């Protein structure tokens, strides 16, 4: 799955640690999501969407 | 002067960001401490080794079957306590850490099942001297390696 978390985070001027704190997860989790090594659970994906005020499908899209 | 003021503002922002990042990193390191053994787990482990020694001493003296059963199962409450505390610790982790633990446990379970299967077949052929103790001590070691591998896989 591809995602735009890194771009959205960068747009807010947040570090991975900042985003991790807001999402109440570890920085490793944020890094793994951004690099596409880990697909977040549905609750976490909703949390990310709510934080960036975007629909989930605008942040996450199916990969090849 | 406006250029100097702008530069000072940027410098102040950078300082604030660096400080905030440092605080966040320290908080994360503190949270990472949760992955290490807690005091309760350490006591349960100590109790387990104590019970293991007591069980050995008991079994060398006890003759009656009920007493031997009691002696053999002496470490059991401590094993249950260690498992319960470990489950509680894993449930308190974030979802990626839980995934890493799950992958590590799956690797250990599959390897142990395979190892016991191979050991049983070789023993059946009369060419193996492997004992269950090998699995008992090998499992934690394998878990450490599996957890490290899973952690790197998601890093």
UniProtKB/TrEMBL annotation, chain A:
Keywords annotated in UniProt: DNA-binding
Domain HTH cro/C1-type positions: 5-59
PROSITE patterns, per the entry: HTH_CROC1
Domain of life, source organism: Bacteria
InterPro entries registered for this protein in UniProt: Cro/C1-type_HTH (IPR001387), Lambda_DNA-bd_dom_sf (IPR010982)
Stored Pfam families: HTH_3
PANTHER family linked to this entry: DNA-BIDING PHAGE PROTEIN (PTHR46558:SF4), TRACRIPTIONAL REGULATORY PROTEIN-RELATED-RELATED (PTHR46558)
Name recorded for this polypeptide: Helix-turn-helix transcriptional regulator
Lineage start: Bacteria, Pseudomonadati, Pseudomonadota, Gammaproteobacteria, Lysobacterales
Automatic annotation (TrEMBL), chain B:
Keyword Transmembrane found: yes
Keywords: Membrane, Transmembrane, Transmembrane helix
Parts of the chain that traverse the membrane: 42-60, 72-91, 103-122, 128-146
Protein name as it appears in the record: DUF805 domain-containing protein
Highest taxon listed in the record's lineage: Bacteria
Organism: Rhodanobacter geophilus
């Amino acid at each position: 799955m591809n995602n735009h978390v890194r771009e959205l985070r960068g747009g807010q001027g947040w570090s991975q640690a900042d985003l991790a704190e807001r999402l109440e997860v570890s920085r490793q989790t944020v890094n793994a999501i951004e690099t596409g090594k880990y697909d977040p659970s549905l609750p976490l994906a909703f949390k990310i969407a709510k934080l960036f005020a975007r629909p989930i499908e605008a942040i996450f899209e199916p990969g090849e | 002067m406006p250029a100097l003021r702008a530069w000072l503002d940027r410098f102040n922002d950078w300082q604030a960001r660096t400080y905030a990042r440092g605080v966040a990193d320290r908080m994360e390191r503190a949270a990472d401490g949760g992955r290490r053994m807690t005091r309760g787990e350490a006591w349960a482990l100590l109790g387990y080794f104590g019970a293991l020694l007591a069980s050995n001493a008991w079994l060398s003296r006890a003759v009656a079957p009920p007493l031997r059963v009691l002696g053999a199962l002496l470490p059991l409450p401590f094993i249950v306590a260690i498992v319960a505390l470990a489950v509680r610790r894993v449930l308190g982790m974030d979802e990626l850490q839980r995934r890493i633990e799950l992958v590590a446990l799956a690797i250990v379970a599959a390897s142990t099942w395979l190892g016991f299967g191979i050991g049983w077949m070789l023993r059946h052929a009369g060419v193996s001297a492997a004992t269950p103790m090998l699995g008992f001590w090998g499992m934690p070691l394998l878990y450490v390696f599996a957890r490290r591998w899973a952690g790197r896989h998601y890093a």
